[in-house]
């Protein structure tokens, strides 16, 4: 363990070092320096608390080193290749698209390197947070051991994240599969890549590797990929993956993996078929990093899957310990980890009772086209709720770009309040922002329809969908009668 000392007088003022008197514990000790840990620590320091953050590896966590940043950088390379290839219908022909995998990985590392200083020890110190590098374990309700050093706290924030899950399939471990933790070390593009799991990671990385030139087979146990998303959205992505050369196999179970570490192998499926691979990527979900943390010693309970049990204020079953991010069992997103952390840190340091709400947490799968969703499912109409759809084939920007497979779907109540949305299309994640605000604030389609949107943008999809919903409302018998009455009165008045 190495302790990183604070530098400079200014830092000393805002974040004094370890209190020398053990009866004067840290106001907040944060365990884990990923998104949740860093945001929580900075929030608490900004509120004037004396904060110690303990990280066992490197600050930045999964998002920076193995998650969002490398995956989106890889996707950008893949989109550059695919964009060059799909020029023909637009009159632009690139006869041979070459991919230099070393160059791709250099871009991926470059993106990480660009962002890393913002998540560095120095940056945290500059925000008034004391950092200790080492592995933390609870040794009591208000005590931690960090590689042999005892740390006392008034409050603690647990933010140790989650790690790729490996299902108990015979032969899987022996085949040393790749996961989202290890795939970034590849130095050569896999010739044949099998991807187990058709969720966010499987779809994003499967499509990216296929666009870069790998032969990809994606194996999903459920009857469709992206099983948590709108069925039509999943169908559009299935078609897109297929167009990009991915062989999508759904509704099949892997009964055995044959082959040994590093020399390829095969998935044996329950329908008797096999999928040969050079590399296997496993992406079937992420398990909380809650083992060997001494949670029993500190009275912190976990659920049967190992996620830390929290209340709506993110307090664990130890009244002095809070939890944030992937280890809580809430949706596993960087943006939610940040919201969690600022809420939990504020509650911990100031004794407030702020709650997190999961009703308007947006999610985006960054395939091409993207699938972005928030709020209630848009799958089908339910009692008293309407679903309104608008296809990108009627969005002028999508037509101009020759990318019309997407759509916007809204679920609204009778008053036109927007309760949920799914947007599929290029940059759907950006388009979703206003719908997220609408769901969160309970805005109506009438309010959004009355807001001028710039033309021509993909934002026309949601705008046309809300306008269509308002027009639907105008056809209701009572409203139609009022309109008829006003029109008749107007005619009468203007005749005089
Ligand atoms: C391939 C991939 C792509 C993703 N893409 C997106 C995306 O596009 N958008 C999005 O919102 N989310 C995305 N995610 C999810 C996102 O990365 C996570 O939700 C986010 O990183 C969770 O942050 P966290 O702080 O909870 O955990 P982590 O980032 O995992 O941080 C936990 C930290 O705790 C440390 N730690 C663990 N145990 C100890 C200990 N005992 N002592 C000290 N330190 C410890 C770890 O070293 C780590 O640094 C992606 C994930 C993956 C894998
Ligand atoms: N764009 C993003 O925001 C983004 C991107 C990547 C990851 N993430 C986060 O990381 C988490 C983990 O991603 P993930 O893709 O590993 O998990 P996931 O839960 O999104 O998807 C896992 C998929 O694997 C399937 N599956 C499970 N066991 C299987 C088996 N034995 N055989 C075949 N299929 C099986 C499931 O049906 C599911 O479709 C996500 O839930 C998400 O929160 C987010």
UniProtKB/TrEMBL annotation:
InterPro entries the record matches: FAD/NAD-bd_sf, FAD/NAD-binding_dom, FAD/NAD-linked_Rdtase_dimer_sf, Pyr_nuc-diS_OxRdtase, Pyr_nucl-diS_OxRdtase_dimer, Pyr_OxRdtase_I_AS
- Cite the entry's keywords alphabetically: Disulfide bond, FAD, Flavoprotein, NADP, Oxidoreductase, Redox-active center
Pyridine nucleotide-disulphide oxidoreductase dimerisation domain spans which residues?
361-463
Q: Where is this region: Disordered?
A: 1-25
- List each copy of the FAD/NAD(P)-binding domain by range: 27-338
Q: SUPFAM superfamilies given for it? A: FAD/NAD(P)-binding domain (SSF51905), FAD/NAD-linked reductases, dimerisation (C-terminal) domain (SSF55424)
Q: State its cofactor.
A: FAD
Q: Which domain of life is it from?
A: Bacteria
Similarity section: Belongs to the class-I pyridine nucleotide-disulfide oxidoreductase family.
Which protein are we looking at? FAD-dependent oxidoreductase
* UniProt source species: Terrabacter carboxydivorans
